[in-house]
Fold this sequence. Notes:
Blueprint: E1 3-9, E2 50-51, H1 59-70, E3 74-80, H2 83-90, E4 111-117, H3 120-134, E5 157-161, H4 173-177, H5 183-192, E6 194-203, E7 208-209, E8 212-215, E9 217-218, E10 224-225, E11 229-233, E12 236-240, E13 247-251, E14 258-259, E15 262-263, E16 275-286, E17 292-303, E18 305-310, E19 315-319, E20 322-326, E21 330-343
Parallel strand pairs: 1-3, 1-4, 4-5
Antiparallel strand pairs: 2-20, 6-7, 6-21, 8-13, 8-19, 9-10, 11-12, 11-18, 13-16, 14-15, 16-17, 18-21, 19-20
Amino acid sequence: MYDVVLLTLASERDAPTGCGSGGACCGGATDADTDPRAASGETDPHGETEHCVTERPRVPVLACADALNARGARVQTVTARSNAEIDEVLARLDGPPRADGLTWPDPDGKTRLVVATASDAQLRAVLRRLVRRYAPAPSRRPADLPGDRTLPDLPPVAVLPLDPARGGDHRDLAAQLGLPRDPAAVAAAVLDGTPRRLDLLRNDGGSVTLDGALLGAADDAGRPLHWRARVEVDDVVLADGDEPLLACAIGNAGGYAELNDVTLLAAPDPTDGQVEVAVAVPVVVRSALGRRRVRLEVRRARGRAVSVLPREGKVPYLDDGVEGELTRKRSWWIEPGAWAVWSI
Length: 344
């Protein structure tokens, strides 16, 4: 029978100087292990700040543990208050020593991980630590690594959503993927399910994206503000940096497919090995009578990588629900099938 770890991330309220501070455990790009500024929420070395606050419900975790115990699994519940404590849990997924000295996941491991998530940002925080643990340095790239990837197949995780409301109007990633929300059903997926492999977005700021990112700003009345950036997808230029933009959506899944009833992303798919990108551009047109009006033009492209270069000031964004500000060029690239969830 399997050993199962039920991992919950502490909130800022529970860990004022730990993984909830400055976005470290809740999914931010800052890293309390390597950047002392993370505890204060200051800008990271890549010109980016992120913040989030989460809660820690316990009833679904206990119900899932009861369901697992009833099936004979050996269950441990862990609440992580720092990246180091997350890493201690992830170390149980390591494989045997390799001749090249790399830390590698165990494809036949008997330990299974359940991540109890109050938000997609918390799930991203765990995946980010998995990437940091198992992605080899470019200079140590092994021969058995797939040619279109920079990291091995990450160990599958089960997702235990802690907020049932997110399956309704505000669809989190678990809802988009059709994953179970009932604790007993999650337990069944852990013990009886199979890994469902999904694409992962990495970026040159050291973080990852599971669902997507939305760049742009709005005034106090909710009206979108103009900003400028050069946006490229592979060899396609969606915006040259001179014209104003209202929004840019970078989609692995569909969380940011629409904005104010405007369809930005047509068909984002976390299993197709591509990222879909869209920019919303206000265009002035004239009617037959010569009257000027503004229409919204949505330009889309799909590819393996995308870059965004802000032309002026800071560009606010949401990435898997985490707020941040982009001040320099940022690149995302797709890792096909790099992570997986347990599903029935």
